[in-house]
Write a structure and sequence with these properties.
Order of helices and strands: EHEEEEEEHHHHHHHHHEEEHHHH
CATH topology of the largest domain: hpI Integrase, Chain A
Radius of gyration: 28 Å
CATH architecture of the largest domain: Orthogonal Bundle
Structural class: alpha+beta
Strand order of the largest sheet: 1-2-3-4-7
Shape: elongated
Distance between the termini: 68 Å
Length: 375
């Protein structure tokens, strides 16, 4: 433990340059600010600023930079050291822990992205998915890579999205989603707080121009008479995209709602899935979906990961479609088409009113009815 040395205060450049005895020397004008002198095994002397903070029996010593310029921040002068020390006092006065805040500031977007990617790799279906993440985080998000995650704002997100937003629609879509995931991960880990600046609904949807929609026909759908045999023959252990696909079929939700489903949306006791309106296509209200026993079984079989809010964290846009294409010939079915399968079954085989069926599919209708069970 370095000793606190008595000396003439306040410190000046001449006094600091002449310090050779290891120990801590009070700066003299700002409480808790010290010049720390240390001696290495080879006899060389180093000098750096520290903030000596005592809270009960616990003592912290956050570093404020090097006097000689040996650190990444360069040389920290006496006026700058005083300014930094006063900022630490402000943190303490606001009830914050300076060491925790320093840790938060040290976590960059690149570091956080790497940590998230490492946690997701075991669940990726192939190397292509990992390569896509790496391109998004290291190439397209390069401008924010070295920024502290708690300092990234909406303008920073717009800066990386605008160059590709209209010209490379799919790249932009994946980039925004992955950046949002990294910042959500950072919040879960305590590295940032507040709203996610990469969120779409109620945020970027007001700031970025609408991309022209691709003209598409009806989604190819499996006839409902063939659905029981199809579901019975699914081996959900053969592909990680099949459990979320089956959940999508059983609940008749949109595939994107399954892809981004989060654990706190599910009430296992009541058997309900509440998709927040911010994640629905209409954005008008929360969509409440009843969960059948098979649907609950799929959810209960998923492993929860620390710091990850999503139920299917490795699931990418298109994964369910790719998995389905291996099970059916040609293009006779896509994940979204199962909503048509459900609607056809309801219309032809049940007595439910059209409005009730539309409610189950979260389509806009003139009035609200209770949601119906999908099985």
């Amino acid at each position: 433990m370095p000793r606190t040395r008595k000396h003439i205060t306040p410190l000046t450049k001449e006094i600091i340059d002449n310090l050779t005895e290891p120990g801590r020397y009070a700066e003299g004008t700002v409480p808790c600010l010290y010049m720390k002198v240390t001696e290495s095994k080879n006899g060389s002397i180093s000098k750096s600023w520290v903030f000596l903070w005592k809270r009960g029996k616990k003592q912290s010593e956050p570093g404020l930079g090097s006097w000689t310029g040996a650190g990444k921040a360069g040389r920290v002068s006496i006026p700058l050291a005083r300014k930094k020390a006063l900022a630490v006092h402000d943190l303490i006065g606001a009830g914050k822990d300076p060491m925790a805040e320093k840790k938060r500031n040290a976590m960059t977007f690149a570091k956080c992205g790497t940590a998230l990617l490492d946690s997701l790799k075991p669940t990726f279906r192939n190397k292509k998915t990992e390569d896509g993440w790496n391109r998004s985080l290291t190439l397209h998000a390069a401008a924010i890579a070295d920024m502290p995650v708690n300092a990234i704002g909406v303008d920073d997100i717009l800066g990386i999205l605008k160059p590709v937003w209209l010209e490379k629609a799919e790249t932009a879509k994946q980039l925004r989603g992955r950046v949002e995931r990294v910042l959500d991960y950072a919040k879960a880990k305590g590295y940032r707080s507040g709203d996610n600046p990469a969120a779409w609904k109620g945020n970027l949807d007001h700031l970025l121009p609408k991309r022209p929609r691709l003209q598409r026909g009806h989604h190819p759908a499996l006839p409902y008479a063939d659905l029981p045999a199809f579901v019975a023959g699914l081996d959900t252990t053969s592909d990680p995209a099949l459990p979320p696909l089956l959940l999508t079929i059983l609940t008749a939700v949109r595939s994107g709602e399954t892809q981004l489903a989060e654990w706190d949306e599910f009430d296992f006791k009541a058997g309900l899935w509440t998709i927040p309106k911010a994640r629905t296509k209409t954005g008008a209200r929360d969509h409440i979906v009843p969960l059948s026993k098979p649907a609950l079984a799929i959810l209960n079989a998923q492993q929860r990961r620390d710091g990850e809010s999503r139920v299917f964290p490795a699931l990418e846009s298109g994964d369910m479609r790719d998995a389905l294409s291996k099970l059916v010939s040609g293009k006779i079915a896509v994940p979204h088409g199962f909503r048509s399968t459900f609607k056809d079954w309801c219309s032809n085989e049940t007595a439910f009113a059209r409005e009730t069926i539309e409610e189950c599919l979260d389509h806009k209708v003139g009035w609200r009815l209770p949601t119906c069970s999908t099985g």
